[in-house]
Every structure is written in C-alpha cells, then in structure tokens.
Design a protein that fits this description.
By secondary structure, the protein is α/β, with parallel strands linked by helices. It is built from 18 helices and 23 strands. The longest helix is centred in the first third of the chain and has 18 residues.
Length: 552
Amino acid sequence: MMMSSLVLRRGIPAKARHLSYSLRTLSSKPSWATADPEIMGTTSDPYAVSNLVGGTWTKADSEMLIPHPLDKSKHPIFSVPDTKVSELGPFFESMRKVPKSGVHNPLKNPERYVQYGEISRLAGAALSDKAVADYFAKLIMSCVPKSKGQALGEVKVTADFLNNFGGDNVRRLAKSFGVPGDHYGQFSHGHRWPYGAVGLVTPFNFPLEIPGLQLMGALFMGNKPLLKPSEQVSVVMEQFVRLLIDCGMDPNDVDLLNCKGPVVQEVIVSTPMRLTQFTGSSRVAELLSNATNGKVKVEDAGFDWKVIGPDVADVDYVAWQCDQDAYATIGQKCSAQSICFIHENWLETDLLSKMKANAEARSLSDFTAGPVLTHTTKQFLDHTNNLASINGAEVMWGGKELEDHNIPEIYGAVEPTAVMVPLEEMMKDENFGACTTELFAPFQVLTTYNDDTLDSVLEALEKMSHHLTAAVVSNDPKFQAKILANTVNGTTYAGRRARTTGAPQNHWFGPAGDPRGCGIGTPEAIQLVWSCHREIINDSFVPTDWKQPKAT
C-alpha cells in the first residue's frame, strides 16, 4: 500500500539488460548469485529482480525502480516486477494445484522431511561461510541501511536457524504422539499436518531473517508458500531462494511474487490459500484478517515497553542497552524500545546523560543513524513536536533533521530522539493515544515513576493495544514478579540485562494476547504457525463374540 509512494515505475527494456548486467558481475559474487551489491546504485542499468512461479523465473510487463536509500542523486539500486492482477494467471494456477494435504505430510512423501533437513544443513553451511555472509550483509545494507554489525547479525541468526534444523530436526517437527484407546485394536495418533497452499507477506526491516525463517518453516511442514517480500528489499529474498535451489530445493516448491499489496491480496483471496502469515503494520494485518475471514497468523505492530526497576546498578550497561533497544537498525525493529518507564532512583545517577551521549554518538557515516523508510522527516518531527507540547514534556535529545545528508525526501532523515513526558500527563485520555503511538523510527518516549505510582505504570501497560516484546530491568524478585504477573507481552526479558530487541533463533519471538499471533524461529513457533493438528484413530478388530446391540 505505502510502497506506491516509495518506488519509481517504468516499462521493462530488452532482455539484454539483464544479460549485460550478468557480464559485469564481480568474481567475489557466489556462483549461484545473480545480483551484485557492490555496483548497486552505480549504473543506469540496474539489476532486475525476477518473479518465480511454477519453477520458472519470470518478469512482468512493467517494473518498479527502487531508489538509493542514502543518496537521491545516485541511480536506483535495482528494479522489481510490478506485477498486475492481469498477470497473475500462472500464480493462480500454481496455488490451485496444491492439495489440502500439502506437498508432504507424515503419511505422504515423508522423504521430503529428510531432503529439507539436508537443504537446511547445506544452506546453513553456506551462510556460515565468511564470503557468503559478507555477500548477504552487503546486499542487506544496500537496500536497508544498517550497521555492518546489525547486518551480519541478521545473517548469523539465519545461519544458526538453518544449522539447527539440519539432519533429522525437520522430520522431528512433525513428530506424532499416540494415546491408547478404549479397547483392543484402538489407538489414536496426533499428527502435525500442513495446510497446503499458504501465503507469506514480509517486511523490509529484516529482509533475510524474517522471510527466511518463516519461509523455511512453511516448507519444513509440507506447505507450498507464495512469498511476497517488501518491494524495497526483494532482491535479498530472490538471492536467498537462488541459494536454496543451489542447495537442492526444487524450484517448484516456492513461488516468489513481486507486486503491490492489493495485487498479492487478489491471489490470497482468489485461490484456496488456507493460511497467510503476515509480518508488518497492524493496519495491513487487520485488512488481511478481514479479507481472509481470519485465516491469518500475524506478527504486527509492537509498541514495546521497558520498565527499569528501583534497584540501581550497572548504569553503563543499562544505558547502553537502552540505546541499542531504541536506536539499533535506526529504530526500525518491531521489537524496538518505544517507551521506557524509569524509577526515580535512577535519576540520582547519570543514566539519562549516558543515554543521551550514546544516542548522539550515532552517525550516518557508519549507518548507526540513517534513513527511515516508513516516515518522512516532516512526519517524524511533527510527532516529536506534538508530544513535546504536552504540559511538562521536553525533548531530551534529538528532535532534529540529520545534517549533511542526501537521503531522498520520501524517507526520513532524523537524529535519534527521546521525549520525556510526565506520567500523570501521559495517562490523561487526551494524551495517552499519542504517547503510545508506534513510530517505526529512532524515537522513544521516556517517563519516570516511583513506588507510589507503580500502579499507574501497570495501568499504562494494560491499556496498550499490542503485546510483542517487553523488558523488566530489575534483579528484585518481588518487583519482577509484580510486573510479569500483570502483563502479557509474548517475548519478555527480565533481569538487569533485560532488553526488548531479543529475537535470536534460540527462543520464541512473537506477540501474545491475540489468537492470530504467531512466533518465529523455534520448533514450537513453526508447528503453531505452519501446521495444524490432525488426529487419526485406528480401530481395527471386531471381537469374535460381538453381537449387534439394541439401537440407541
């Protein structure tokens, strides 16, 4: 939906355009790769991303040019097919061929569990290779400016996930259980069963990790997914799919569709797609939920909170973690720290000054500050000024446009920002909505409380509408227990090192409090999102002395 204002369109030129690009690629590019991040934005003949449908790479009649996110004077970084509804025939056909019982299940084509264990092992080994990891990190940074450390971290999480499911661990996702029956010969078996045709709509901010992990989960469980990545970053998943094919995946197993939101919705509602997993804004999540009659799993907006408790210690660490949670990846994480409740005991330390110093050390030169892809500078500053106008509120740091930049006007270019709002004022009906509006940007609200106003903090947490991540920064067990017992966020860290941005492959990451909520990364998350329960009851033997009873 928003993408129409973020991309440029033009008719596709001759096929020689892609061929000439291939001839220019550098030798450091992996053998299976077709895109070269080293030259993105340097040529008027940019790389053209392809669709994949029915096992064949295809184009569309028109394309969208993706502008350089850091420099509006440079060439577009790549183009993507601007697929129209009139061009969806092959995608309709592909999805309609998928049986409800999936491509594989515990009783059909079980050898595919083993095959995907091997594909996962090989892909994990590839992403663990330094050259391939650097390739994907550069590819990510070319379209989502983030620090090299953040980009490599995304690659590592994806590699670790794939390594986790190498060997037999894919088939163990479909592990069944049995329960003895009522009589001889009866036994019930519970199975994890695929949905068949499924959809996957993914965001821009983690162009490898989020779609990569969810895509593999869908494939592991026996589904055939149609993947629609964000246009701004679709080159990353196109290259990842090419890597999977190189590792042995049948190209018929996945369809990759580049288009605008309403177009993919047409596929979702016009084919027997039994589940769509969506990661992104709550507005689009609700649109999809309505369009599919609730057949969605969502990981949507997160206005994520941190409560810093009364026990003061490790000030340097807490200040650093607050900065990372609020501003790493330029604040464009669904788990980013949106609001921080600080116990007044910490005001006797230099916590706030350290947080300010850390924020002001961020720079466009190393991508620890940079373009905001979902808000313009004006939208960001208008929101900042609106909160700063609340009685007693003030801008603690930031609140200004970045200096010496050439970022396109369609994006935001702002300093990491924090606005302090008095708790009493924030809790007023006329202010609460604005203070708890997620800004997908380097922005956070700060407020303070004391022992007497802790219940107001809990009231604020209760009133928030989305419950993704949270952090309780305290080693006081009674304080921890009170906060944790009265909140619901699906991924909550507790303790001195608590953070809001913990989304590795080793634990569940996802919201709570919504039956449509989904997780990512763990066996439990994959089973919850990409399979359903099926019970098969074997009842085989009629007793030799059986006699027909009276009808009931």
